[in-house]
Amino acid sequence: MYTATKIAAALIAGLIGTSTMAQAGDFIDKREKRQAQRIYNGIQDGSLDFQEAGKQIKGQARVRRQEQRLRNSGGGLNTKERLYLHNQLNKEAVKLRHRRNN
After folding, report:
1. Under 8 Å between Cβ of 47 and 100
2. For the chain, what is the domain count?
3. Residue 36: which region, alpha, beta or left (left: phi > 0; alpha: psi -120 to 50)?
4. Alpha-carbon gap, residue 46 to 29, rounded angstroms
5. Between 27-45 and 50-72, two packed helices, what is the crossing angle to 10 degrees?
6. Whether the Cβ atoms of residue 21 and residue 68 lie closer than 8 Å to each other
7. Cα–Cα distance between 10 and 85 in angstroms, integer?
8. pLDDT tens digits for 28-53?
9. Which domain, by its residues, includes 22?
10. Inter-residue contact 25 to 56 (CB < 8 Å)
11. Reported pTM
12. Which of 7, 86, 18 is nearest to 43 (CA)?
């Protein structure tokens, strides 16, 4: 269990540490970090097992890749793109809540 916790902590640290090309104070990045912290907390308190945490980390990484693609496609994020990313983060948050409470 200790090894799994160390691996999960390293994955979460990587998730938190990889800042996209965002401006300081970008709400999307803050939200991604809060969700990553919730994943880490779930591992620590035992409400998420390693497999569930891996699925959540993959989901978070998918949203982060989408964000990077949108930012690179032309001068940052417009309102429609921000709403899309918020919806994707909402879906990931619902999955996380379900996995932590099952």
Report:
1. yes
2. 1
3. alpha
4. 26
5. 170
6. yes
7. 25
8. 889 999 999 999 999 999 999 999 99
9. 2-101
10. no
11. 0.72
12. 7
Q: What does the chain come to in residues?
A: 102
Cα separation, 92 vs 63, whole angstroms = 9
Q: How far apart are CA 66 and CA 59, in angstroms?
A: 11
Mind listing the pLDDT tens digit for each residue in 57-88?
A: 999 999 999 999 998 988 888 899 999 999 99
Mean pLDDT over residues 5-16, rounded?
60
**DSSP assignment string, 9-67:** HHHHHHHHH---SPPTT-HHHHHHHHHHHHHHHHHHHTSS-HHHHHHHHHHHHHHHHHH
